[in-house]
Design goal:
Blueprint: E1 27-33, E2 36-41, E3 46-51, E4 57-61, E5 94-96, E6 102-106, E7 111-115
Antiparallel strand pairs: 1-2, 2-3, 3-4, 5-6, 6-7
């Protein structure tokens, strides 16, 4: 479970829920590959990598074009009745290709970035 801010109240029935990463400002997209959890943190404009086995977390990329530009607010859409419930707000996602390239949607400028890890 990803969380930000104070510990939320949870109701869990029959399942075990644990916090994987704490202290993220505004986590959006997540992807997992080879024991690594990747998270786009829109609040800090970073791509974070977290080793699930050890708990080690590192910043992969900073200054991503995600979220609203400084001093502005996201344009929230009302949704489409009977099709897509609203409100709908911009979302930054992350996916990993079969070649290991990490793709991040830059919702701040309408781009898709390819992150090649070295």
């Amino acid at each position: 479970m990803l969380r930000r801010g104070p510990r939320p109240r949870r109701s869990v029935f029959g399942n075990r829920v644990t916090t994987v990463i704490e202290g993220l400002a505004e986590p959006h997209g997540v992807a997992v590959q080879n024991g690594m959890l990747f998270v786009v943190d829109v609040g800090t404009r970073k791509l974070i990598a977290h080793v699930l086995a050890t708990g080690k977390t590192e910043t992969i990329v900073s200054f991503l074009p995600v979220g609203s530009p400084p001093g502005t607010r996201a344009h929230v859409q009302p949704g489409i009745p009977q099709r897509i419930p609203g409100p709908l707000s911009p979302f930054a996602g992350v996916a990993i290709g079969s070649d290991g390239v990490i793709y991040v949607t830059g919702n701040g400028d309408g781009s898709v970035l390819a992150v090649h890890r070295t």
